[in-house]
Write a structure and sequence with these properties.
Length: about 375
C-alpha cells in the first residue's frame, strides 16, 4: 500500500532543497533559476517512530523496518500554469497522481535568490498556486462533462452517477473554492476520488524560514497562518535541514541541533505531518527476526490490515492476537503481556488502532 505527498510551490521557494534533505540525497538539483526541476524526483522516506525502537528492544529484534512515505518533488508552478505557462500542464498532471500536497512557501529574504514576481509576498504566492490548481480542475471538469452528458442521455447509469458529483463540484470551483468543498453524499465520495481532482487533496503548508526564525516564526509566517487558518503548518529552514542531512550519525545530527537550540528536525515534523495528513496509522508486528511498522488508513478492519502484509492473510483470516504498544512495553514483552491478560483475540470486525502490536492467525 503506497502513499505519497507531492511537494509544490512557486519556483525558488526551497522545494528541491527540502526534498534533498528529506531523502538525504542530492538527487534533486537545486539552482537559483525557475524550472530547475523538470521531471519529478521521487524518494521514499522512513517515518520516525520511537515506539518501534522500543518494541524492537524488548523483543530483541535483529532488524527494524519502519514504515515509509513517498515524497515527490514537483517543478515550480507559475501564474498561467493551468494554460501551459512554464510547462504548467505537465507539472499539474504530476500533482494529480499524489495523495496529498505539501505546499512550500517562501518566508525568507535573500537578494541572491530571485523571486519570480520580484517580491516576497507569501499570501500572494499561495493564491497563485491555489488559483492555478482551481483552474486546472475546472478545465478537467469542463472537458469531461459533454461526453458524460451525451452518454447519460442515452441511458448510461455510470455517466449519470458521475455527473451527479461533477455538477456540485463545478459549482464550488466557479466560486473559487476547492472541489473538496462540494456537498456530496458519502456513497459518492469514491467517485470524487476517482476523478483525481487536485483541489480534493489534503494540504499542509511548509514555511521555509531563516535559521533565526525557526522557533518563533516571522512576519511572513504570520501572513501564512492568517491566510490558511486551521490548515496544518510546519516551519522549516530548508538550508539548515540540508546541512543536517549531510551529517553521518544521529549523534552528530543531535549535537548540531542542540548547537542551534533545537531538539528535533523540521523534517521529522514534515514527515509525521504528511502521515497524519493522509489519515494514516501504524500497527506493528514484532518478533526476534524483525520489528516492523505497517501503514494503514484510519478505520481499517483487521482482515484488511492483515492483507497489507500478504493477500493470503486477508483471504484466510481467522483472528488477530492484539496487544497495545503501550501494554507491550509496560509488561516488558509479549509473554508477560499474555500472562497479565493484556493480549486480546479480535475478529473480523475489529477496527485496528494506532500502535496495535498484532499477530494474525489465518488458514488458506
Amino acid at each position: 500500500m503506497g502513499f505519497n505527498c507531492g511537494i509544490v510551490g512557486l519556483p525558488n521557494v526551497g522545494k528541491s532543497t527540502l526534498f534533498n534533505a528529506l531523502t538525504a540525497t542530492a538527487s534533486a538539483e537545486s539552482a537559483n533559476y525557475p524550472f530547475c526541476t523538470i521531471e519529478p524526483n521521487v524518494g521514499r522516506i522512513s517515518v520516525p517512530d520511537d515506539r518501534l525502537i522500543k518494541l524492537a528492544k524488548f523483543a530483541e529484534s535483529k532488524q527494524i523496518l519502519p514504515t515509509q512515505l513517498e515524497f515527490i518533488d514537483i517543478a515550480g508552478i507559475v501564474r498561467g500554469a493551468s494554460t501551459g505557462e512554464g510547462l504548467g500542464n505537465k507539472f499539474l498532471a504530476n500533482i494529480r497522481d499524489t495523495d496529498a500536497i505539501i505546499h512550500v512557501v517562501r518566508c525568507f529574504d535573500d537578494e541572491d535568490v530571485v523571486h519570480v514576481d520580484g517580491k516576497i509576498d507569501p499570501k500572494s504566492d499561495i493564491e497563485i498556486i491555489e488559483t492555478e490548481l482551481l483552474l486546472s480542475d475546472m478545465e478537467s471538469v469542463e472537458k469531461r462533462m459533454p461526453n458524460l452528458e451525451k452518454k447519460a442521455k442515452s441511458g448510461d447509469k455510470q455517466s449519470r452517477e458521475i455527473l451527479e458529483v461533477l455538477h456540485p463540484v463545478y459549482d464550488v470551483l466557479k466560486q473559487g473554492r476547492p472541489a473538496g468543498a462540494a456537498e456530496i453524499r458519502d456513497d459518492q465520495k469514491n467517485i470524487l476520488k476517482q476523478l483525481q481532482l487536485i483541489t480534493t487533496k489534503p494540504v499542509m503548508y511548509v514555511c521555509n524560514v531563516p535559521e533565526e526564525d525557526l522557533a518563533t516564526g516571522n512576519e511572513y509566517t504570520k501572513q501564512v497562518k492568517e491566510y490558511v487558518g486551521d490548515t496544518p503548518i510546519v516551519m522549516v529552514s530548508a538550508v539548515i535541514e540540508a546541512e543536517i542531512s549531510l551529517l553521518d550519525s544521529d549523534e552528530e545530527k543531535l549535537e548540531f541541533l542542540n548547537s542551534i537550540g533545537l531538539d528535533s528536525t523540521g523534517l521529522s515534523r514534515v514527515i509525521t505531518g504528511g502521515y497524519a495528513l493522509l489519515g494514516l496509522i501504524t500497527y506493528f508486528t514484532v518478533g526476534p527476526k524483525e520489528a516492523r511498522a505497517w501503514t494503514i488508513k484510519r478505520g481499517t478492519k483487521a482482515p484488511e490490515a492483515a492483507g497489507v502484509i500478504h493477500s493470503d492473510f486477508e483471504r484466510g483470516f481467522i483472528c488477530a492476537e492484539t496487544i497495545s504498544w503501550h501494554d507491550y512495553i509496560e509488561c516488558g514483552g509479549e509473554n508477560k503481556a499474555k500472562q497479565m491478560g493484556m493480549l486480546r483475540i479480535e475478529g473480523k470486525e475489529y477496527v485496528v488502532h494506532d500502535g496495535d502490536v498484532m499477530n494474525f492467525r489465518f488458514n488458506v
